[in-house]
Each structure stands twice: as C-alpha cells, then as structure tokens.
Please model this.
Amino acid sequence: MPKHSVAGRGRTSRVGVGPFGLLVLASANMEEKTAVFFRIFKAEHKHVVLMCHDPTRSSMRPNLYRPTFAGYVDVDIAKTGKISLRSLIDHSVVESFGAEGKTCITSRVYPSLAIGKDAHLFVFNNGSADVKVSELKAWEIRRPLMNGA
Model:
C-alpha cells in the first residue's frame, strides 16, 4: 500500500501532484460545479494515480446526497507521462473513464443553475506543479431522430 495520505474533496495536500482536472456541469460563476480530477502520489517504486468525483458543490438544492467517489487508476505515469480522461455528461449524470476505461466513476448530480446552455466546462489545476493539457475536446450530441421526426 502506498505511503501517503489523501486530503479529500479536492483540497490541497503536501504530497504528490494535483488536484487537477475538470469542473463539469458548472454554472458561469461556479456556484455549482462537479469536480472530476486526478491526484498523483509517489509511492516506494512507482506513482499512484487517484481519480475522483467531488459533487459536494454540484447543486444549490438543499438536502441532496452528494458522496465523493474515488478509484485508483492503473497507469504507468512515469513511462507514458500521460493520463487520459473521458467524461460523459448527460443532464444529471457524470460518468468518467480514466486511462482509457481502466477506472470508471459514475455520479448522479442535480444542478439547478448549470442546466442546458447554462452548463459550462472548466479546466483547473489546484496543485503547485504544472500540468499540461495536451488535448481537450468537447461536443454536444443532438437529440436523436425518432421514426423520421
């Protein structure tokens, strides 16, 4: 087991790199946002990559269950120098795949401001080390045509 402690919910800790990632289903002023992020820690003989979903600020609605989820990503960051992240967002579902699907986290969020055209996507790095985003693509899928309509 790696010798480190993880400060949860996107807070800064003194070990590793990050948190860095995306703020999805975010309102323009970021009152609402769901963080999808990575933290990288140095273990004895390799790096350990943790992927997290933090929906604690995902909605202005009161009394919602907003658990934070995390999973280790099996990737040799020293060898590749890269981590892939693909997030699918559909109204109130955020599903993220780290390292080409080696780790998957799905969260249900209930935004009240970040809906439709008022939903934004931001990139962030709250760590002290530089992180390079080599490619970022975002697209919106239109409604399907059903029975020719």
